[in-house]
Amino acid sequence: MNAFSFMGIKKLVLVSLYIDSINEKFVSYLKHFGYKVVEVANLGVTDSYELASVPSNNIYSMANKVDRKDVDGIFLPFTTFPVIDIIDEIEKDMGLKTISSNQALAWNMLRVIGISEKIYGFGELLELPDRTNFNNPSEKESKV
């Protein structure tokens, strides 16, 4: 949630590989913290082996189909699936801030330990300065 707050994301599209029942949990969790998911695009993958073998260009294609000018960003909720290499491309092509779970985790770890250097090529979140000065008032409620 810190990464969403830092980037000013309140309304978003969830681009997911998961099935509806898992996506509904993401939507509920995000809603609990004041975020609005206006669309869920998913592949509905049920097998974990298949999940790990989906090419990242499939995720790019799904994100590229998001034609929403009423959202602040895209969320890619994958921890076992590598999408860090396509975040920058999605942001440039779609004009939407894009955050993945692992990228947000890396950003928050860097923030907490005081590393503020910009990291290029993996999305705007890691390129922006002042991550170490960011304090989210709701951080006591969420460590995500």
What key attributes describe this structure?
144 residues, Rossmann fold, 4-stranded parallel beta sheet, 42% helix
Structural summary, described in words:
- The longest helix has 13 residues, at 20-32.
- The N and C termini lie close together (5 Å).
- This protein has a domain at 2-101: 3-Layer(aba) Sandwich (Rossmann fold).
- Helices cover 42% and strands 15% of the residues.
- The radius of gyration is 15 Å and the shape is globular.
- By secondary structure, the protein is of the alpha/beta class.
- Strands 2-1-3-4 form a 4-stranded parallel β-sheet, sandwiched between helices.
- Helix 2 (20-32) links the parallel strand 1 (11-16) and strand 2 (36-42).
- The protein has helices at residues 2-7, 20-32, 48-53, 56-64, 84-94, 101-112, 124-127; strands at 11-16, 36-42, 73-76, 97-100.
What is the secondary structure topology, with strand pairs?
Blueprint: H1 2-7, E1 11-16, H2 20-32, E2 36-42, H3 48-53, H4 56-64, E3 73-76, H5 84-94, E4 97-100, H6 101-112, H7 124-127
Parallel strand pairs: 1-2, 1-3, 3-4
Helix pairs in contact: 4-5
How many separate helices?
7
Assign an overall shape.
globular
- Helix percentage: 40-55%
> Rounded to an integer, what's the Rg over CA atoms?
15 Å
Largest sheet properties: 4 strands, parallel
Strand content: 5-15%
Provide the structure class.
alpha/beta
Unreliable stretches: none
Average pLDDT figure: 87
